[in-house]
Amino acid sequence: MEEQKNYKYGDILKPVILIIGLLLILYAGRFLHLDVDSIQNFLLGFPLFAVGFLYILLYVIITFFIWFSKDAFWLVGALAFGPVISAVLVWAAEIINAFILFYLARFLGRGFVERKLKTRHSKFDESIARLNFGWLLVFRAAPLVPYRFMDLSAGLTGIPVKKYILAVILGSPVKIFWVQFVLSGVGRAVLRDPFAISEYFLKNKFMLWFSAIYIIFVILVLFKLMQKGRSQWRQK
Q1: For residue 3, pLDDT beyond 50
Q2: How many structural domains are present in the chain?
Q3: What local confidence, expressed as pLDDT, does residue 102 receive?
Q4: Which of 48, 165, 182, 208 has the fewest C-beta atoms lying within 10 Å of its C-beta?
């Protein structure tokens, strides 16, 4: 009886810690701002062979505590390393971040969610755990879906970690390479000119058409998967 009572308290305490931690991170992010030039100058002060490793290390640590700093690191990477190398570095850092945040949510919040859904919504929980791999790929490749939200949400569900991390590895490069090529072309103008990106696309027809096709393709695939999911749900 005592063990069951301790388990109940522990099951409630963990999600409370998770929620408080996330709120503190979001609150701190409002006041802590990173300067793009300062980060770039700091990185370039190290030997070339160490810069890539240092960039990944700083990316993982700082973006974990300051979520909105991710944009600054993406721009720094594009300016310092160019579109291809920066995309590879961001991709590697995001895989590490996904692994950490997934397990953080799984350890602190999954037990509470599973307990709440165990009786009335167990089928829904099971269906999420068996979510089609294509869904995860599309969500990971979608340009407007925040990575942090996906990582934490996946950890709260019953989705196997190997399945999710594989989707992260295969689905993330599309979005990351696209963003890094755009940032590399626009440069620092993206910080001071709100129309810099639109001007970039008007001057670069290939990227304009590629971006349009990319976004339309993601929307169509997502719509198709939604239709398939609805039909399967009705059959159940």
Answers
A1: no
A2: 1
A3: 93
A4: 48
